[in-house]
Amino acid sequence: MAKQSGNRQSGEEQAAREKPAKQPKSPREKRPRDPSMPWGPWLRALVSAAILWHLTAVFVPPWFLWIAPDHKATPNTPPGELVRDAQGNDVPPERWESVGVARQWPPLVSWLNDIVFHYANLLYINNGYEFFSPNPSVAHVVDYEVMDDAGQTIAEGRLPDLRDQWPRLFYHRHMMLVEQTQTPDVPPPLRDVADTAGEWLLTKYGGESVRMTLRIHHLLTPKQVRDGMATDDPSTYEEFGSFVHRKGDVPEPNAAAETIPPPNTAIPGVSP
Question: Does pLDDT of 1 surpass 70?
Fold first, then answer.
């Protein structure tokens, strides 16, 4: 028995001596970087996160501003309960806090807006895109008719009008002013125009009164586009309301004269 054990040990020792020594592993060769992917995985992940963060900051502010106006606000009250004061009168959204009622925001968009607020404010991208959205709504124009003290028409036109407001940035300013008259919490619809454009038109043309008519300009339907209808076809305009503004109705008129040179006019220091 002892002899067999000794033979086994000697056999194992002989096998160990005959077994070739283990060769050391050669260092792993680095694979050449794909020229189409010059950045490493960590850098790609970092850049992807930065892009995702920026896109979030681009989309969240318009989303939040869409639900922020007073006419879209929701009171933090039980469902179906209106906000009323001690006398039982309805309280408008801008006065909810005065009666101890807070506004209720959707939690997700409110939380995201708090996170990206300072970043979006720094880049000045915390705004809305209602005028340039993928689904634009109707536009608005104001047709005006300036009359003298005898009631005779001495001037008429439209705001905005690219033929009169030049350059295009000047036209854009008129367009924005007209669109701002549609703020739901500023009745009546033409209030802002009466305080600004109305008195300015009277000063510009020397009139005594001006009749201003607000019209809605509807978009063309796909069928109307296929039929070749013009975008400014008279049938696309709908009258919304009108009023007469008389000289002196505004205590402190903002009617500073502003002249815009016609196209091709040489401007000192600007034109070649």
Answer: no
